[in-house]
Amino acid sequence: MRSAFYNHDIPYLTQQIYLNNELIATFSRPRSWRTFSDDGWLSAYPVAWVCPWCLQTWAHSTFQMPDGNFDSRPFDLHSVSCSTCNKQVGSTPPGSLIELGPNDFPLDPGIIDFAPQDLLEREFNILLSKAES
Ligand SMILES: [Zn+2]
């Protein structure tokens, strides 16, 4: 299933996720994946999660290439509320690193499929608290 969804001809990358400038996850994942609408491939890209209410960059993600060099492309800015402001933007709950696109599909499924257990538990708790509110 994953072999059809992910492009394994392209090497795996090491993704690092920082929460408030503190490293919280490092994991290996494929560089690109097929979109849910099946209209092509998307590539992993450095991301900074910026809160549109207080303008804090509360999380960011970098990629290390197989040759050891860091991805030097500029960060893609994603608008997601920080957990302090706690105001929903679109479908993505405040403080979530798993952004939801149209039809609530994750924009980057690689985080769900390859991230370590504690990061997924963090996301689960965010979704649970949203469901309970
Ligand atoms: Zn904020």
Shape call: globular
Helix content: 10-25%
CA-to-CA gap between the ends?
A: 35 Å
Task: Tell me which oligomeric state these chains represent.
Answer: single chain
Counting DSSP H or I runs of 4 or more residues, the number of helices is 3
Structural class: alpha+beta
- Please mark out the parts with pLDDT under 50 across 5 or more consecutive residues, or reply none: none
What keyword list fits this structure?
binds zinc ion; alpha+beta; 133 residues; 3 helices; 5-stranded mixed β-sheet; two-stranded antiparallel sheet
What is the gist of this entry?
It is built from 3 helices and 7 strands; from the N terminus they run αβββββββαα. It is an alpha+beta fold.
Report what the structure shows.
With 133 residues, this protein is an alpha+beta fold. It has three helices and seven strands; from the N terminus they run αβββββββαα. The protein has one domain. 20% of the residues lie in helices and 29% in strands. The strands form two sheets. The protein has a five-stranded mixed beta sheet with strand order 2-1-6-5-7. Strands 3-4 form a two-stranded antiparallel ribbon. The chain is globular. The site of zinc ion has 8 residues, from loops.
